[in-house]
Amino acid sequence: MARPTREARIDLGALRANVRALRAIVAPAQTMIVVKADAYGHGAIEVAAAAIDEGAEWLGVVDISEALALRAAGISAPILTWLHGDDADFQAAVDAGIDLGISTFTQLDRAAQVDGHAMIQIKVDTGLSRNGVEHAQAGELFRRAAEFEREGRLGVRGVWSHLANAGEDEDREQLSRFDAAVAEAESAGLRPELRHLAATAGALSLPESRLDLVRVGIGAYGLSPFDRSGSADLGLRPVMELSAEIVSVKRVPADSGVSYGYTYRTPAETTLALVPLGYADGIPRAASSSAPVSINGKTYRISGRVAMDQFVVDVGDDEVTLGDRAILFGDPATGVPSADDWAEAAGTINYEIVTRIGPRVTRVFVP
After folding, report:
1. What is the DSSP secondary-structure string of 255-312?
2. Neighbouring residues of 96: CB distance < 8 A, sequence distance ≥ 6
3. Is 298 a catalytic residue?
4. Which pLDDT tens digit goes with each residue over 81-115?
5. Does residue 1 have a pLDDT over 70?
6. For residue range 136-191, what is the model confidence (pLDDT) as tens digits?
7. Mean pLDDT of 204-222
8. 284-324, pLDDT tens digit by residue?
9. Which positions ≥6 away from 95 have C-beta within 8 Å?
């Protein structure tokens, strides 16, 4: 069978190795593998199944719909979902045995009204200023949750928050605020079995923040959350390799304009290779004329602007033929560019580079 024109190879062996390594680091804390946004673009169902098989205790998603898709695929592991609109289907989540992240009094009341016994995990805002109950309201929300729990209308499994990763002092201050919030929850009569604050960055940089459970996101995919250290420095292997076949090769004279706006002109007679990936596939236009591409073991730069469906690479006098693969990023240990290289070229972060890869790119899962 021919390889897809556009392909994201997902190395599930690398994913398993990353999960195994991170579980060993954070033990005895449990591990939640975050598979929101289709597992950061890697394929939620396949990643979730591999992570659970490797020993991860929990899965994390943002939307109830993401959690229900995992259940529909036969994944029975514990799941937490935490970002809800006014019409979020709490009943469907409870019926499917999915824990609800609760950030407001309205959400708490709705969880208490569904049929069955909702399991919830209360999120507190310790300084990230996103969702999560504010400090001034937390005590009252804890007391109401404890009352609902005594009435048998729901169970409070966890209390949690999220670090801002703004620096060690700021993270320690958030940890202190979180400890105070947990104490307040206990004073209200709650006995949560799970306290969790740290994601990958916090778990690696602030061991005290690991508590009962760590939410592992970017680390599971073999990418570093830190600016000053890469995957290999953390003992992780990138899971995604993005490539496409060369669909056009042409020889052009010196001073030929390339792509829209002629922001690149050939310095000499040269060969241009056309790669069928563009911003419709998640390739950042901001990476025009700067991002690296590996073809036949040699690294080049994008020549000119990234278009909706394609970009051009000036390969000089090197031999490139139709059907050769252009590798945009993967595991740098194999000699190809990394998602970090692309993030630097586009002025963004590696999280965005992998997560934005679109549905026209075929995911190929390598066991």
Report:
1. T-EESGGG-EE-SSSEEEEEE---GGGT--GGGTTT-EEEETTEEEEB-S---SS-EE
2. 67, 68, 71
3. no
4. 999 999 999 999 999 999 999 999 999 999 999 99
5. no
6. 999 999 999 999 999 999 999 999 999 998 888 999 999 999 999 999 999 999 99
7. 97
8. 999 999 999 999 999 999 999 999 999 999 999 999 999 99
9. 116
292 in any annotated domain: yes
| 262 carries an active-site annotation | no
Cβ–Cβ < 8 Å for 341, 331: no
How many whole angstroms separate alpha carbon 77 and alpha carbon 89? Answer: 20
For 82, 132, 179, 273, the CA distances from 126, given in Å and listed in that order, are 16, 8, 10, 51
4 pLDDT above the threshold of 70? yes
Q: Which amino acid is at 284?
A: P
CATH number of the structural domain spanning residue 332 = 2.40.37.10
pLDDT in tens, 41-67: 999 999 999 999 999 999 999 999 999
Tell me, yes or no, whether 216 and 293 share the same domain.
no
231 within domain boundaries: no
Determine the structural domain holding residue 139 and report its residue range.
12-222
Number of separate domains in the chain: 2
Beta bridge partners of 258: 264
Does the residue 7 lie in any domain? Answer: no
Tell me which of 40, 123, 250, 260 is the catalytic residue: 260
CA angle at 319 for the pair 318 and 321, rounded to the nearest 5°: 140
d(CA 175, CA 182): 11
Sign of CA dihedral 347, 353, 358, 364: positive
> Does 364 score more than 90 pLDDT?
yes
Q: In what order do the strands lie in the sheet with 6-11?
A: 298-301, 292-295, 325-329, 240-245, 6-11, 362-366
Find, among 248, 171, 222, the residue nearest to 41 by Cα: 222
Which of 36, 123, 221, 351 is labelled catalytic?
A: 36
Kindly give, in sequence order, each residue whose CB lies less than 8 Å from that of residue 162, ignoring residues fewer than 6 positions away.
123, 126, 128, 130, 132, 197, 199
6 within some domain: no
